[in-house]
Amino acid sequence: MTRSASRFVGVLGWPLEHTLSPVIHNVAFRAVGLDWTYLAFPVPPERLPDAIAGLRALGSAGANVTMPHKQAVIPLLDDVSGDARAVGAVNTIECLGDRLIGHNTDVDGFREFVSKESGVAVTGTSCVVLGAGGAARAIVRALEELDVGEVSVVARREEAAEEVAGSAHPGFARAAPWESAQAIAEDSGVIVNCTPLGMRGEDVLPGVPFHEGQLVLDLIYQPPTTPLLDNARAAGAVAWGGLGMLVLQAAASFGIWTGQDPPTDVMSAAAVRAIGLTGGAHMPKELEHGA
């Protein structure tokens, strides 16, 4: 493998106590022979403009963006991709000379996982999305691209659910009150949890009678399993945590920055090892960079 000139990328967030991204990306850079470094940059909201200016001034190759900066960063950039514009959030910045371009690779990560890794065909299937944050917006966008059937967005704040449903093409998604979540989930072929419920042992859908043929996806990846996943698997549903989606969205970021095919297997192995070392004690929010 040829060596490339040293570059740096990193993740901007606040607070930024725990993140798997440096582990995932640094092993990927080594695997393809890039002399690059991925760093964690805790950036309080009031210093975000300075941090973005620093990316330009220091010749960064790019950055990830996580809570709470994914919306606030948009006016500081020169342009945003179609997915980022549709979702209204950026989780990846591409540096092209002095120009900074915003992307949202959470859409890519979820779409690729469902279509290639989940083992379930979802075309035309009814879906329910739990939550109404930036992660939910990315999931609804990906579900559109997967050509599923009716999508219900359920959240404790119904106005927030309406905003997420309204981010899709007219008629594709509808908002529903939180009280209806269990009934809608029972009749849905795909269930996606975009809330933090489950990180500390909560059951986001208590009492729902899951069944064979359902696909249940929880964006939480620490701890590796949740009551939602345990209950779904016990009933014969196909259920997945969020680690695979995390790795695939990171792989999409890697490709944007480097122009190379990401070593996804290496990135996945590094993430699994890191979670094993932490023992599931640290519980990042939503899709790591997408929320």
Which helices and strands, and how do they pair?
Layout: E1 4-13, H1 21-32, E2 34-42, H2 48-58, E3 62-65, E4 79-80, H3 82-87, E5 92-96, E6 99-103, H4 105-116, E7 127-130, H5 134-145, E8 151-155, H6 158-166, E9 173-177, H7 181-186, E10 190-193, E11 215-218, H8 227-234, E12 238-240, H9 243-258, H10 264-278
Parallel strand pairs: 1-2, 1-3, 4-6, 7-8, 7-10, 8-9, 10-11, 11-12
Antiparallel strand pairs: 3-5, 5-6
Helix pairs in contact: 1-9, 1-10, 4-5, 4-9, 9-10
Structure explained in plain terms:
- The longest helix has 16 residues, at 243-258.
- Strands 2-1-3-5-6-4 form a six-stranded mixed β-sheet, sandwiched between helices.
- The protein has helices at 21-32, 48-58, 82-87, 105-116, 134-145, 158-166, 181-186, 227-234, 243-258, 264-278; strands spanning 4-13, 34-42, 62-65, 79-80, 92-96, 99-103, 127-130, 151-155, 173-177, 190-193, 215-218, 238-240.
- It folds into two domains: 4-103 and 244-278, Rossmann fold (3-Layer(aba) Sandwich); 107-241, Rossmann fold (3-Layer(aba) Sandwich).
- The protein is globular and about 55 Å long.
- The chain is α/β, with parallel strands linked by helices and 291 residues long.
- A hairpin with a 2-residue loop joins strand 5 (92-96) and strand 6 (99-103).
